Amino acid sequence: MLKMLVLYSQALLGSLLTMVVYMLVLVAGVRLTDIGLFETYIYATPILALALPSMFGGGTVTNLALGFGASRRLCYWSLQLASLLMIGICLAVTWLTFHLSAGWMTHRASVSWTWGGTALLFCACEFALQSSILTCTMEKGWRRSLTVFAGWGPSFLLVMAVEVCLLLDDEPLFDVLRPLNILNPIWMTVGGIFLAGALVLAIIARVRFNKLVVRQ
Length: 216
Known about the structure:
Elements: H1 2-32, H2 36-43, H3 45-57, H4 61-67, H5 72-101, H6 115-135, H7 142-167, H8 185-209
Helix pairs in contact: 1-2, 1-3, 1-5, 3-5, 3-6, 3-7, 5-6, 6-7, 6-8
């Protein structure tokens, strides 16, 4: 397992560097300038946190490991662990970006991505990630494209729904959705559905990994 994680270390470090540089530039821009574009991109940080692990999930490192004789079981669980580490990195930096920007942005929703709200982002990331891992077992074609869309589409909509509730925090229409926290029964149900879907996709991927062959 450790040797496999070493293979994934470059991707993990790349994601960490991407998120940290992104955070530093945006936080510095918000604190030191009056340019609204920095604030706009801060609100887009959860989308980046969703995208990085999902793109990694279908990576070529697994194919390389199989080519060098690694077992399918080891490849699957190593990919799952490395992907979870990447999600953790992205979520931590996302929370830190909003936390360091609090008080400097023009909208008070800048402090609303608490750890409870970030748990919703984890649910979205995990669902999209398992969809990407499943695509590792599929040939290019409409089935693979459909799987990507089925994972990315709902996950993106969940993140955007939370963002809309943050930005329209004075709108009474969204009062039933507050607080934006995984402990809110509505969000707990939504998060549970996403995690259940992620589990189903993970099980299907595990079964299909047993028949995975090296791609030329």
